[in-house]
Amino acid sequence: MMDEKLLSLSNQVGQTLLKCQYSISTAESCTGGLLSQTITAISGSSAYFMGGVVAYSNPIKEQLLGVNRHTLETLGAVSGQTAQEMADGVRRRLQTEISLSTTGIAGPTGATETKPVGLVYLGISLPERTWTFECNFSGDRLQVMRASVVEILERLLGLLQ
Amino acid sequence: MMDEKLLSLSNQVGQTLLKCQYSISTAESCTGGLLSQTITAISGSSAYFMGGVVAYSNPIKEQLLGVNRHTLETLGAVSGQTAQEMADGVRRRLQTEISLSTTGIAGPTGATETKPVGLVYLGISLPERTWTFECNFSGDRLQVMRASVVEILERLLGLLQ
Asked: Which of the four pLDDT bands, split at 50, 70 and 90, describes residue A120?
C-alpha cells in the first residue's frame, strides 16, 4: 500500500527525531494527509509525531493554523508566505519543535496563468528558523502529492544533519 | 500508490456528497491521515472536503477537537465515546454537515489486556445523529489502517443511501 521509498524516508526521519528528541507536527494542503500518513506508517511514531491539520479550505487555514487572511487574499493559498505561516502556525498550536507544511496545485484542475499544476510550496519550521521551498513537480495528482512528501522529508533530513 | 478499492470507495463517497450537497471533515487518530488522503486523492474533492485533524496525542484530541479530558482518563482514547466526541468536535469546529473519526490500536505495539491490536472505533456524525462502530481488524499496522478506512467509507455510504 505504501511504497518503500516513502517508508524508508519516514523511518530515517523518525530515527533522527528520536536522536534529537524533537517532536513534529504537520499542516497539509495539497498533500491532503499523505505526509502525516507517511510519518505515522512507522510503528512507534507516536513518540515524536503529535498530530497535524489538513487545511483544505482557506477558512480552515485561517481558523486552525492562524494563516493571515491578508496573505491568502494578496499572495494566495499557493505561496511561500502561506507555507511559512502554515508551518509556523501548526508548530505554535501543537507545541512541537519542528513542523512541516505543504501547499500547492496537485491538479489536474486548479491551475491559473501564473500557478501551474505541480507548483508546490513546502515549509519547514525548526526551532531556529522557518525555511520555505518552491518546487515544480510533474506527473498526475498522486505523483505530485508523493513527490511533495519525498521532497519535504529529504529537505528535513538535510537540515537536521 | 493508492489501491483501486480505496479510490473507488472515495469516488463513490464524493459523488454522493456532491449529490446531497454535504461537506465533510475528518478527525483521525489510528489512521494517521490515510482517511483524509483517501478522500483528497479524488480530483475535485475540495468541493466537499474542508479539512481534517490528525490528533495523535491526547492533548491534541482535547485542544483541537474538544474531546473531554474525563473521557480520555476514564474510558481511554480508544473508546466509542472518544470516537463520538472526535467526530462531533471536528464537525462543529470545521462547520461541515458530516464528519468521520477513527481511533484504535494499529499495532504492533500499544495493545493492553482489554484492548488488542486491531481494535478500532469509528465515528460518523451526520446532521441528525452521530453513529459509532466497534471493529476488530486483523493484519499488520498498514492493513489495520486500510481496513479502518474501507469500513468507515462503506458505513458512510450505507448511512447516506
From this structure: very high
Task: Quote the CA–CA distance of B32 and B27 in Å, as a whole number.
Answer: 9
State the Cα–Cα distance between residues B161 and B149, nearest whole angstrom: 19
Range of the domain at B135: 24-160
Q: How far apart are CA A43 and CA A110, in angstroms?
A: 35
Q: How many separate domains does chain A show?
A: 1
Helix (H) or strand (E) holding A49, with range, is strand A49-55
ipTM for this model: 0.96
| CA angle, residues B159, B142, B131, in degrees to nearest 5 | 20
Instruction: Give the nearest partner residue to B51 out of A37, A55, A143, using CB atoms.
Output: A55
Q: Which residues of B touch A35 (CB under 8 A)?
A: 33
Q: Which residue of A has its CA nearest to B142?
A: A41
Q: Give the integer Cα–Cα distance in Å for A146 and B88.
A: 31
Closest residue on chain A to B110 (Cα): A44
Cβ atoms of A94 and A51 within 8 Å: the answer is yes
**Over 80: is that where the pLDDT of B46 sits?**
yes
Q: Note whether A107 contacts B: Cβ–Cβ < 8 A.
A: yes
First to last CA, chain B: 29
Cβ within 8 Å, pair B93-A39: no
Please check whether residue B34 is in contact with residue B149, taking contact to mean a CB–CB distance below 8 angstroms: yes
Q: Which of B37, B41, B50 has the CB atom closest to A60's CB atom?
A: B50
Nearest to B36 among A3, A46, A54 (CB): A54
This prediction has a pTM of: 0.97
CATH number at residue A50: 3.90.950.20
The residues, ordered by sequence, that sit 6+ positions from A21 with a Cβ below 8 Å of its Cβ are none
Answer whether residue A95 shows pLDDT above 70.
Answer: yes
Decide if B4 is inside a domain.
Answer: no
